[in-house]
DNA sequence: TCAAAAGTGTTCTGTGTACACCCATGG
DNA sequence: CCATGGGTGTACACAGAACACTTTTGA
């Protein structure tokens, strides 16, 4: 393998990990799954779940495996997408560790199941991360910030919002996803028209659901389109 | 470091490389820089330039170094952005090599300078890649396809098109960048209005330039804005 | 009958689109 | 003078924003 190496003293193999930024919408909060580290470095500090990539798996397979091992989540029902690679040589005090960050999005998961490790796993509201709760380990705050920005942008031009909802959902639920993640109020009637006029975004199931109070709402399920055209742009307007 | 390892027989360190998808617009063609591999595997086949990440550099620094070593290009004048990580365990026949792909965009570079290695470096028109010219090494065709899609999308909502132009440029030149990359004709007068009405996209220099024939064109330079709002959407219309 | 949420309709305004037209230069 | 590309103006259709209004349920 060293036939490629130009100056073998300058190159060495690296540890490669995957880290997961797992988000869900619960009520009117965007939540991210964190673990409390049980080992040094950063012992006791919150961190994104993750771990080493194994010999014979793809990066995506590694992410799915960690999703299961660290959070007890079956990835087949969620949206998993690569966010990017983070490889600053000083990001891990123990040496060079390149991590591939993945974004995982899903409907309100039943329990923030503890991982197979000793670490505690829990859902944290994204809005409360800036202040206290202890600083995130490694460069995980950077990864999380990038993840958030990615979600906000993806809501505009993909149907990704639907993965935060269940199998079927009302337009109000879908709108709440947008409102929570963008942090701004959207006009219900305009949102409705926009979504229904975007070909393939959602399709009616024919069923209805009764809200706590008020008229029953029609249920929809995910449509066939992933890319939205025209996109659902968030104007700079709309104070929350 | 193995304090993290859950099952050390399943984990091993990986080689980490950076690969570069370097694009420029020349005339009415989008060009990508390829090298002809001088070594096995895939000897003699075209490939993206790239190489191993060294011990003490960030991924971005590695990309900049390879840009210089393999293509003789000074990265300070171009746009460099991470595309993603590619880590299928079978992507390199010699074993596990995770590569971080970078996108590099710049104005028509003077010469497709050969690298410091024996390999030949040359600009290839993107339009001719699908057909012959030999298949690309490794998974580089996948990387290139992802890169293209990324550029096309980024043209819509960022001012990235300006990095394909020189220090100052006419609106026709800027429009040509869009037309070449999107592969569709744009109305000159509407393009003009759109660009000038987007705050911070370009700013007039006051200079003019004489085209081969016709009225002199005003020159512009890059503005302060990177994100365009509103974005410059390509409708599904406009046959080239 | 009231509150609350779903759903419809309407008006206003801005923006993309298509296209006609004028301007400045070299040949 | 003409050809060529730069640059301006305009009319139309459509889409988003704001908001009034109707419908359907439970309490």
TrEMBL record, chains A, B:
<dbReference type="InterPro" id="IPR036390">
    <property type="entry name" value="WH_DNA-bd_sf"/>
</dbReference>
<protein>
    <submittedName>
        <fullName>8-oxo-dGTP diphosphatase</fullName>
        <ecNumber>3.6.1.55</ecNumber>
    </submittedName>
</protein>
<dbReference type="InterPro" id="IPR020084">
    <property type="entry name" value="NUDIX_hydrolase_CS"/>
</dbReference>
<dbReference type="GO" id="GO:0035539">
    <property type="term" value="F:8-oxo-7,8-dihydrodeoxyguanosine triphosphate pyrophosphatase activity"/>
</dbReference>
<dbReference type="InterPro" id="IPR036388">
    <property type="entry name" value="WH-like_DNA-bd_sf"/>
</dbReference>
<dbReference type="InterPro" id="IPR015797">
    <property type="entry name" value="NUDIX_hydrolase-like_dom_sf"/>
</dbReference>
<dbReference type="Pfam" id="PF00293">
    <property type="entry name" value="NUDIX"/>
</dbReference>
<feature type="domain" description="Nudix hydrolase">
    <location>
        <begin position="14"/>
        <end position="150"/>
    </location>
</feature>
<dbReference type="InterPro" id="IPR054105">
    <property type="entry name" value="WHD_NrtR"/>
</dbReference>
<keyword id="KW-0378">Hydrolase</keyword>
<dbReference type="Pfam" id="PF21906">
    <property type="entry name" value="WHD_NrtR"/>
</dbReference>
<dbReference type="InterPro" id="IPR000086">
    <property type="entry name" value="NUDIX_hydrolase_dom"/>
</dbReference>
């Amino acid at each position: 393998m060293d036939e490629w190496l130009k100056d073998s003293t300058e190159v060495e193999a690296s540890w490669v990990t995957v880290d997961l930024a797992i988000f869900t919408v619960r009520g009117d909060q965007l939540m991210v799954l964190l673990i409390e580290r049980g080992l040094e470095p950063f012992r006791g500090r919150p961190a994104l779940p993750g771990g080493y990539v194994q010999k014979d798996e793809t990066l995506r397979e590694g992410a799915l495996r960690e999703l299961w091992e660290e959070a007890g989540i079956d990835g087949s029902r969620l949206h998993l997408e690569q966010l990017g690679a983070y490889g600053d040589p000083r990001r891990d005090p123990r040496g060079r560790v390149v991590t591939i960050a993945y974004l995982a999005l899903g409907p309100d998961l039943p329990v923030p199941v503890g991982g197979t490790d000793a670490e505690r796993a829990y859902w944290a509201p994204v809005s409360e991360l800036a202040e206290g709760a202890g600083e995130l380990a490694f460069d995980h705050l950077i990864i999380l910030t990038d993840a958030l920005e990615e979600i906000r942008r993806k809501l505009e031009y993909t149907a990704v919002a639907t993965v935060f909802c269940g199998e079927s959902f009302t337009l109000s639920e879908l709108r709440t996803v947008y409102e929570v993640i963008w942090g701004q109020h959207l006009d219900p009637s305009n949102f409705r028209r926009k979504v229904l006029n975007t070909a393939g975004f959602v399709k009616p199931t024919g069923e209805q659901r009764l809200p706590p109070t008020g008229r029953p709402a029609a249920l929809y399920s995910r449509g066939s389109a992933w890319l939205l055209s025209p996109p659902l742009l968030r104007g700079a307007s709309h104070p929350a």
